[in-house]
Amino acid sequence: MSATDAYASGDLPRAAKASLRVARRDARARRFGALSPAEVAVESRRLVAHLLAGLNERGVWSVAAYLPVGSEPGVVPGPPMLSGAPRVGLPDALREAGIGVLLPLMRPDRDLDWAPYEGPEALVRGPHDLWEPDPETALGVDAVRVVDLVVVPALAVGRDGSRLGRGAGCYDRALARVGPQIPLVALVYDDEVLDSVPIEPHDRPVTHVVTPSVGWIAVGTDSSRRHRL
Ligand SMILES: Nc1nc2c(c(=O)[nH]1)N(C=O)[C@@H](CNc1ccc(C(=O)N[C@@H](CCC(=O)O)C(=O)O)cc1)CN2
Ligand SMILES: Nc1ncnc2c1ncn2[C@@H]1O[C@H](COP(=O)(O)OP(=O)(O)OP(=O)(O)O)[C@@H](O)[C@H]1O
């Protein structure tokens, strides 16, 4: 296949994404390994505080979010609590601020279902080391349409709004249902804000990034930025 054919068929951005994903995942794991649990906790608290301040300024009352795990930004380090419940930072902080929170449940078809967050004790072990709401409480894939803002996981984000995810396409499917006026906010570490990351036609650009040190950064093209708050 020629390079032009490869590009037209989508193979080039797909391959570029795959190698960047490996590099970013390694970099994240290395960085995480070099920090103590206390340092991770401090960074997570700063990230969550920035996120909350910006939600408050924007008058946001409901969000679709997620529970950071492993080396993801916002994770609360340490084993599960004595009760067996996971350590929860971000969803509790949102709920305590009076914000309604939906959490995702990964479906076998790699789409995302959504359920209200009702506290750490109500979470159950999901696939891939994730903690998820009880599937009995799930509202369906369309529940994400009603929130004021979506908090999105990412391995890296470009200043042009391009986002690199884990590669399952879960968020691509979910974000395809979200209206164009809804802010899409990726949580990343400071060194994960790049000029751009490879994209494919199905990728929805994010509108903002929040990092532990800088806080909120509006991303996207100049024209996309002119049309929003
Ligand atoms: N905290 C958190 N929750 C989330 C996501 C996320 O990225 N972070 N998701 C975002 O989509 C959804 C779950 N999506 C996932 C998609 C793929 C893999 C997966 O393939 N995991 C591999 C390891 C490689 C990796 O970490 O990516 C595995 O477990 O073998 C895991 C979760 C919904 N909930
Ligand atoms: N709206 C969609 N409907 C159906 N399939 C989709 C959709 N969006 C993406 N996909 C599929 O998901 C695959 C993975 O997409 P991609 O590499 O962009 O994932 P990602 O953005 O890194 O992951 P995520 O969205 O889970 O964070 C794509 O190859 C594509 O076939």
From TrEMBL:
UniProt keyword Magnesium present: yes
Lineage, top ranks: Bacteria, Bacillati, Actinomycetota, Actinomycetes, Cryptosporangiales
Species whose genome carries this gene: Cryptosporangium minutisporangium
Cofactor(s) of this protein: Mg(2+)
Enzyme class label: ligase
InterPro entries to which the protein is assigned, alphabetical: FTHF_cligase (IPR002698), FTHF_cligase-like_sf (IPR024185), NagB/RpiA_transferase-like (IPR037171)
Source taxon at top rank: Bacteria
Protein name, entry field: 5-formyltetrahydrofolate cyclo-ligase
UniProt KW Ribosomal protein keyword: no
